[in-house]
Request: fold
Amino acid sequence: MSRPWALDYDTATCTVGATLSIVGEKWTFLVLREAFNGVRRFDDMQRRTGAPRQVLSSRLARLVAEGVLRKTPYREPGQRPRSEYRLSEKGMDLYPVIISLLAWGDKYAAPPGGPPVLLTHRDCGAAAGLQLACADGHVLTSARDVTPLPGPGARRVA
Amino acid sequence: MSRPWALDYDTATCTVGATLSIVGEKWTFLVLREAFNGVRRFDDMQRRTGAPRQVLSSRLARLVAEGVLRKTPYREPGQRPRSEYRLSEKGMDLYPVIISLLAWGDKYAAPPGGPPVLLTHRDCGAAAGLQLACADGHVLTSARDVTPLPGPGARRVA
DNA sequence: TTGCTAAGTCTGTCAACTAGACCTAGCCTC
DNA sequence: GAGGCTAGGTCTAGTTGACAGACTTAGCAA
Reply:
């Protein structure tokens, strides 16, 4: 195989790295998983992710600062006011990341009984998942069908 | 909103967590990004990811142990034998994870000039990306269109 | 007044990351 | 065949971050 073109370009601007600098820390993905499952309270998050309280606190604060979660006060009848963490649109857009982690795990690391979570289309109930497709409507079945090319923001290595 | 069903189920078996325990460490995603860009050599990886050599060494070893990468010796004419790291099928299946991180970064954290990398369909050249669809062929446009349900491997919390 | 709970913060310990130097095997040149 | 070069690591010491467990605070309830 020939030398990959990628070696001629700088990685400093790569948006994978940019994404990871925001959500790439150890517990953040688990926090997001719970958020997508509808979990909104600190204590539920803490119990379900197993993250140390202090770490959870700092991850939630980071996600709020980045606009991925919104922290809003709410109050149940007869209860004192509490805080809840809800996904913003920016956070919702991270769903494909969680789904792709889930899909890989279901294929390669599912427990004996099968996957513990199934994703379904809200309207028709059929199983939902990610598909790799191109703008012309072809469905791609493998990473080999994709050719990465330098984009407008690419910078050559000096 | 009602109490999410997720609270009644155990997270210990969740395959998102299982996936993250294999590939969730800080530099691993960047290593995979480079692998998908065709980078195979230790030194190229090191230079492009910026990972400390020792960390890179241990991440590569972990990925090889998990069967995500294969370490194979090769030899260029007139050179001594070297090692290269190539994605296995199991590794190729992680491509959606990288693509989804890339897509989110392109939307929310792209550098001024635009995305540095474009993904294209190898056969037709059109832009490629992930879409959320259900088994009945409906395209889903938002995380809100997905309903997660307990799967066969779900375990109730005691 | 005391107790309870959600949502944190504080403290000490221990593991992980980091930078930078060092090592090693094969090849090349002299 | 001595020395240098390079890919692919390992070693060491210092710093940061994770962790468990105790403590804190605000509002409500008995």
User: Anything to note?
Assistant: Chain A has six helices and six strands.
